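Q: Convert this sequence to structure tokens.
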Amino acid sequence: MRRLFGFVLLALCLGFAQAQLCLSELENGLSGEELSQTATGLEAAQYLKQAVDLLEPALPQRMTLPFWFSLDANSPEYGLASWLAERDLLAESWQADSLSPEAWQEMLSRFSSWYDLPISVESGDLSRGGIIRALSAIISQVAPDLKPVALVAASSANRNQIAFWAVIRNDSVYPRLIVYRPAETPVDLSDGTRNVLPLLETCAMKLSNYIFAQEDVARNLFLSNHNGQMYIVAASPVLAQEVKEIARGSEADVLTFHASETDGLSNYAAVFAGNRVGPTTIARLLPRVRTNMNPKEVLDFVLGL
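A:
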């Protein structure tokens, strides 16, 4: 047991010694004195939510509220706590005004279990800085293994402008298409995706693979002409209604943020159901697609949503 404990501590120390991804984003300008102060349960929950958003933007609900969740819906911490609980990240013993080592360890373990990390990330340091470093350590171990794919659709009216753009995440705990609101300043596509990929990245989610096509081709990769159904299953800001079924025929407006369903959203997660596009259809579309992936990889990513 001592040898195992020593190995875990050694592995944890090595993890902290590596580059700490997203550390500055999570610290968000806090001073050294502020980072040294003990975190409340509410602060730890806020940092955990930020870490999830960096690794898993627009992550949908994964479960209903557990039976033990008893926070009053009118309490100020209800929104954050229920969001974590619906993603199986909140410890039953969690309290907003204080943080116990056991509650924090459980929350870290739940988070790291999504990615089958080889070690149990422990942190007896319950300062704000300690909380942030533990989350950064998880991000630093997970990020290199992520395989997100950028989907960039050029406008039919102007091939050098974006109609819609998204990130395919079928390597996630919840496979989905994350669609982002187009940038206010038009992004020039004359050099392909060179200027696009950095704009879709976070400190935890780097992009190297891409699929680039005209908007009609990009849409048809996910929707059949007849019975394919699109759903919005999460968004930022958080939706009051968790799942929205998109009326057939309005998918183009939803993808380009011209529909009422996307008012006020910066991004959303979409999934597709029903009579999906099959491998043969996708194979016919591939000659009209520019990508740095091989055909099998494209099929796996598109059909994996």
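Residues 2-144 form one domain.
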